[in-house]
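[stage:ingest] chain + small molecule (NDP)
[stage:ingest] validated
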Amino acid sequence: MEQHDCIIIGSGPAGYTAAIYAARADLKPIMYMGLQPGGQLTTTTEVDNFPGYPQGVDGNAMMEDLKNQAERFGTDIRFGIVTKTELNPEVGGYHTLTIDESTQVQARTVIISTGASAKYLGLPAEEKFMGFGVSACAVCDGFFYKGQEVVVVGAGDTAAEEATYLAKLCPKVTMLVRRDEMRASKAMQNRVLETKNITVLWNTETVDLVGDDKGLTGVQVKNNQTGEEETIPATGFFVAIGHKPNTDIFKGQIDMDDTGYIKTKADSTATNFPGVFCSGDAQDKIYRQAVTAAGTGCMAALESERYLGALGH
Ligand code: NDP
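[stage:predict] done
[stage:export] tokens:
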């Protein structure tokens, strides 16, 4: 079985930053990229708030830059999904990871950077129309709805970004906001409110999705103040209501909170297992920014280096 000093799980800003630091510290890190190589930023449009890009940067281009930087220092970047973990509670012990349900590899330190995934409302119709009207990624799927009317549900930065992106392709975008205000940053809210072909329906919730065997035709909504219901004609329904941490493979082993975010020690990325560190959105439900994920990725690599150093490696 392969044995390594450091394995990084996940390839978002946290994973790549951990890789850059770990590789420069000569830990010869191995990275398993996971289900969505490059992470969530590969589904976003422009990233305007990552320091160092005064004109903004395309999410995919930024992740490619991070990948190239991690590779430049010798990170061994591999396709593959970690499907099982057997973490060792002994200091200095090897942790065993199963890749794609077949190969096993071991490492003394593991950096978890598995990020988070989009949440859905939980309506049976979402599953029925998945790929035929329902999407959680405007950048991935918006093109298929060019020239058609669409609905976006959510009121955070993701929803605002999806709505403005779709407004460039679609003649009418309706945004469903369940309260009388949005959670999105003021700048993003202004962008939505200033876009002529976006209509915001306040205090409005999704009741059901309607359609036929060809796909979605409308979204049934209800005003939660007046009780009034209507069906908005739409062929696309974009869900943008937040994310769930990708931590299921660690359940029953690593300490996590009741929503699945991995618990780390104060001012540290250390988990309850020696040599297992967690960075990025898998442990952060407060900030969830690329730059904060990168910051904790750096911390995880430095902590891995110190842990191995203390073991005499
Ligand atoms: P958020 O958790 O910030 O927002 C989720 C939104 O979905 C909230 O408005 C919430 O409503 C709404 N919502 C949740 N459940 C339901 C439901 N069942 N029905 C209707 N609405 C629902 O998630 P985001 O994905 O928007 O953002 C996550 C983080 O990523 C944030 O920190 C954000 O700032 C950041 N981000 C930054 C971007 C950028 O800088 N370019 C782009 C995208 C995200 P309510 O407000 O009522 O709770």
